[in-house]
Specification:
The protein is an alpha+beta fold and about 600 residues long. Helix content is about 25%, strand content about 35%. The structure holds guanosine-5'-triphosphate (GTP).
Length: about 600
């Protein structure tokens, strides 16, 4: 295929601004899918995505479009996820493109992820086409939105395309803009092959699909290819494209996007970011790859039933293969037994993994409170990272305790600036700057400890701004802070899984809060249960759960036995997610109460 007739592009947008709908609409208008299929939202095909309505994993599809110049173009749409946790996947997809459609909701306007995604596209030197979507809404602010695009992102608003993805309005303009404004890929067909591996997918029947974007050279069925970083050689069994169904083809040339099948059966043999070349005529240099995704949030996951441990291990292994940004390692806890310490890109990523493990594998889990990674410098000069509060060494040996710091951008109406500034101040935030998007909306920038934002900052922001504020963050480094490990003792014994790292200035407060919280979560037993928070050997807070066994059937006066049974059954189910620690039963919710800041 002549590269002059190829266009590679992504659609980037803030969540819910209509990216999937526009993608489907482009498929529909180019005849890749039917009206009926359009309705079934083709590109989001992971179950979790359907359920939550968000895009997690990037996908790609090749479209054929006949332009008014009479030529037929191949448009490769590389889908990107929209949530903060998945920045990494976004930049990975963008590296395979020459252009991007920047989609903005005609009413909501520029939001935090619009800005973050636009910057990611600018960093990759992509041609950006602003697209205002949802022009069919009864109330729109199209002119204001275009002004925001210009002031915040520095993009020319005159070239913006106005569409309704849902109603299919002006989709032709969008397709024409892709052809006319996004540069064609460059690269010589007879140069040594260099193809960027930007994704992979396991198929139980065909093996591993390696998704590539060719930069130079040509690849054909029967060729022997080499993964330049991985170092292994393989014969090409099949090549093709998704359109959106799999379609075999004879060869792929410069600029084209498609898949290669080599019979590789294990996903870990294909590294995302690697370069594919020919074994017989290798390229001199690999393409720049990707940085490894950084896991920023960790938590323990334990099977409620110890017998599920092996099953859980198998499932985690499978999951990690499909999702290189998830990690796991066995750990043991006095309180919870055998389990795993798992690493995630962020909180949403964590929830998605947990949901997948539970719904697909039927393993009930107890999850400990998530924490971020910390850096410790010992007096001896040793520097290392820890991702479990239990690994904090004695205070005596610590020279410096460092925590990750994030730069956070909020986009909100100017009435909400005050409350958000207060919220950030309460969380040890450092004010950086305010920029006005228009007369009523502003972008507020802060530097905040990651630990103070990952858990509930997003929810707090939504409640303070009645749902209208948005945020985005990026970790920028580690910074020393006055941090200490806080232990929790239940009936005199330390419960390792409840330990947390807190800031000294806030420790007493947090200790009291946590003890109160645990008192609420742990039900009464036949004996008294003291709950204590301690730093080093010093007790900083205490609550006591008095002795008494709650009789759940007490409410049922009279003899309705079926109602009584129901209640007892309910109590039994409630017990399922509990762990006995010594003689005290601690419910799952208690482990997460560490997070609560109210
Ligand atoms: P993520 O996958 O989470 O990134 O979301 P998305 O950006 O792909 O959004 P999606 O396409 O799922 O659309 C979000 C919502 O907006 C859905 O309820 C769509 O039906 C609606 N929507 C999309 N385009 C339009 C439009 O042109 N007009 C109107 N009125 N609604 C639209």
């Amino acid at each position: 295929m002549d590269p002059r007739f190829i266009r590679n592009f992504s659609i980037v947008a803030h969540i819910d601004h209509g990216k999937s709908t526009l993608a489907d609409q482009l498929l529909l208008k180019t005849g890749a899918i039917t009206e009926r299929e359009f309705k079934e939202q083709l590109l989001d095909d992971l179950d979790v995505e359907k359920e939550r309505g968000i895009t997690v994993k990037a996908r790609t599809v090749a479209l054929r479009y006949k332009h008014t110049d009479g030529e037929t173009y191949e448009l490769n749409l590389i889908d990107t996820p929209g949530h903060v946790d998945f920045h990494y996947e976004v930049s990975r997809s963008l590296a395979a493109c020459e252009g991007a459609l920047l989609l903005v909701d005609a009413f909501q306007g520029v939001q935090a992820q619009t800005v973050a995604n636009a910057y990611a596209a600018i960093e990759q030197d992509l041609e950006i086409i602003p697209v205002v979507n949802k022009i069919d809404l009864p109330v729109t602010r199209i002119d204001d939105v275009l002004e925001e695009v210009e002031t915040v992102l520095g993009l020319d608003p005159y070239g913006a395309v106005r569409v309704s993805a849902k109603k299919g309005l002006n989709i032709e303009d969008c397709l024409a803009a892709i052809v006319e404004r996004i540069p064609a890929p460059q690269g010589a067909p007879d140069a040594p092959l260099r193809a960027l591996v930007f994704d992979s997918k396991y198929d139980s029947y065909k093996g591993v699909f390696t998704y590539v974007r060719l930069k130079e050279g040509t690849v054909k069925k029967g060729d022997t290819i080499r993964f330049m970083r991985g170092g292994s050689d393989h014969d090409v069994i099949e090549i093709g494209q998704f359109a959106p169904l799999r379609k075999e083809c004879k060869s792929l040339g410069p600029g084209q996007v498609g898949y290669i099948l080599t019979g590789i059966k294990e996903l870990d043999q294909v590294t995302i970011g690697d370069t594919v070349t020919h074994a017989g005529r290798p390229a001199a240099e690999a393409l720049p790859g990707y940085q490894k995704p950084k896991q920023m949030v960790f938590c323990g996951m334990y099977p409620i039933d110890g017998r599920d441990f092996e099953k859980l291990r198998d499932e985690m292994q499978k999951l990690a293969l499909n999702d290189s940004s998830f990690s796991y390692a066995p750990e043991t806890s006095d309180a919870l037994g055998f389990g795993f310490r798992c690493g995630f890109l962020g909180m949403l990523h964590m929830e998605i993994v947990q949901q997948r493990l539970e719904s697909e594998q039927d393993v009930d889990l107890i999850q400990t409170a998530p924490n971020v990674t910390y850096e410790i410098e010992e007096r001896s000069g040793d520097v290392y990272k820890i991702d479990n509060p239990q690994d904090v060494p004695d205070a005596g040996v610590i020279e410096e305790f460092r925590e990750p710091i994030a730069r956070v951008n909020f986009i909100l109406s100017k009435d909400h600036i005050g409350p958000i500034m207060q919220l950030c101040a309460d969380r040890r935030g450092e004010y950086k700057n305010t920029e006005y998007l228009g007369p009523d909306r502003a972008q507020l920038t802060y530097e905040l400890p990651l630990a103070e934002i990952v858990y509930d900052m997003y929810d707090k922001l939504k409640s303070v701004t009645s749902g209208y504020g948005t945020m985005d963050y990026e970790v920028i480094g580690f910074k020393a802070a006055d941090l200490v490990k806080m232990d929790i003792m239940v009936k005199g014994e330390r419960v390792d899984a409840l330990a947390t790292i807190v800031h000294k200035s806030n420790a007493d407060n947090r200790g009291r809060q946590l003890c109160k919280r645990l008192k609420k979560e742990i039900s009464k037993h036949q004996f008294e249960i003291p709950i204590q928070a301690a730093i080093g050997g010093r007790i900083i807070a205490r609550e006591t759960i008095s002795a008494f066994r709650k009789n759940v059937t007490a409410k049922c006066y009279g003899g309705d036995i079926s109602r009584k049974r129901k209640l007892l059954q309910k109590q039994k189910e409630g017990k399922k997610r509990m762990r006995s620690f010594g003689s005290v039963e601690i419910p799952q919710k208690a482990f997460l109460s560490v997070l609560s800041t109210d």
